[in-house]
Design goal:
- Residues 80-300 form the VWFA domain.
- Residues 177-208 are annotated as: Disordered.
- The protein has helices at 7-36, 45-65, 100-113, 140-148, 158-170, 190-196, 230-239, 270-279, 293-299, 314-336, and strands at 2-3, 68-76, 79-86, 119-126, 130-137, 175-176, 201-202, 214-220, 243-249, 255-259, 262-266, 284-287, 305-312.
- The chain is of the alpha/beta class and 340 residues long.
- The chain has two domains: 2-72 and 309-336; 78-303, Rossmann fold, CATH 3.40.50.
- Helix 2 (45-65) packs antiparallel against helix 10 (314-336) and helix 3 (100-113) runs antiparallel to helix 4.
- The radius of gyration is 33 Å and the shape is rod-shaped.
- Mean pLDDT is 81; it is low at 178-202.
């Protein structure tokens, strides 16, 4: 415990000591007078207790004047969230009204608006590559604007999305077995890592730390057409304590669309998105229609953390002092018929 005005503690000690000394002297004098008068000296235990409580109450009032502070643990929905939005060409499909991308943007904005200010929010857009368009911060309006400015083009890499989100969370360049965020490969390929079931990580410090209060909200149709391996990236996220909530945008029946003069078929890959989420302890949510955006956003599970902070407890100490004074005064009235 600390105090904003510690000199009052000295005053409390002096006053309490003076009152205690006075109580001892008065009680001794009372006994001497009664003994000299030939009267029976009865124990004044009740009176002494009452006065002691009153002295303690006065001392606590002076302690309250010192404005005490205590470290308390407060549960709150806090931490870091990175919203990763799929901006590949398949997100222009219209099997969700009005388009997959528009529905994804609406879901992301709705989610951001629902979060408390204690949650830092960042935004990652991803297609074949991934880019943090807004680093995690308490500026939720900037995150919403970053989402609303997204446009669709290119192929899809869920793995790149996860790595970019992890980099935004940790503040370090997180890679998977030597694969950089631009998709270049090192001495060990992601295919090898996936085959062996390992998910090695590297960063600028080679120790990204543990981020148990961080969440990635991955909004995509689940079509994964470029490396690195999405499940290996999810395993890496899990090892860092980060869990992933996935939102599937599109329909299982799918649709066709024109991309660079070619007609391609695209459909929701619910299975992969479910595997990515469950690998990290997260949950898959399906967004079949833009009207369901609010329900899905509200249903996402953010981890509640316990945060310690120093809080002034003057009111609590003052309250305890008043209780002691009240009890002491009541005992005195019961014992002697008068408050003091």
């Amino acid at each position: 415990m600390s105090f904003l005005a510690p000199l009052w503690i000295l005053a409390a000690a002096v006053v309490a000591g003076a009152f205690a000394a006075a109580l001892v002297l008065v009680e001794r004098r009372r006994r001497e007078v009664l003994a000299a008068s030939g009267l029976v000296v009865r124990r004044g235990g009740g009176r002494t207790v009452a006065i002691t409580l009153a002295i303690a109450g006065i001392a606590l009032l002076l302690v309250a004047a010192a404005r005490p502070q205590a470290v308390v643990t407060i549960p709150r929905a806090a931490g870091t969230v990175v919203v990763a939005v799929d901006t590949s060409a398949s997100m222009t499909a219209e099997d969700v009204d009005p388009t997959r991308l528009a529905a994804a943007q609406a879901a992301a904005v709705s989610f951001i608006e629902a979060q408390p200010t204690t949650v830092d929010i960042g935004v990652v857009s991803f297609a074949e590559g991934a880019l943090a368009t807004q680093t995690p911060s308490e500026d939720h309006l900037a995150a919403e604007e970053a989402v609303e400015s997204l446009s669709a083009t290119g192929a899809t890499s869920l793995g790149q999305a996860i790595l970019a989100a992890l980099s935004a969370i940790t503040g370090e360049t997180v890679t998977l077995d030597g694969a950089t965020e631009s998709g270049e490969s090192g001495t060990e390929t992601t295919a090898t890592a996936a085959a062996t079931g390992t998910a090695a990580s590297t960063s600028e410090t080679d120790d990204p730390g543990y981020w148990g209060d961080a969440t990635i909200v991955l909004i995509s149709d689940g079509e994964d057409t470029a490396g690195p391996d999405a499940l290996a990236a999810a395993e890496l996220a899990s090892s860092l304590g980060v869990h992933i909530e996935t939102i599937g945008v599109g329909t299982a029946a799918g649709t066709t669309l024109e991309v660079d003069g070619y007609t391609v078929t695209t459909a929701l890959n619910q299975e992969l998105l479910t595997q990515v989420a469950e690998t990290t302890g997260g949950t898959y949510h399906e967004l079949a229609d833009a009207a369901e955006v609010d329900d899905v956003a509200a249903g996402l599970d953010l981890r509640v953390t316990a945060q310690t902070e120093e809080t002034e407890v003057t009111a609590l100490v003052a309250g305890a002092a008043l209780v002691l004074l009240l009890v002491g005064g009541s005992l005195m009235i019961i014992r002697t018929g008068r408050p003091l």
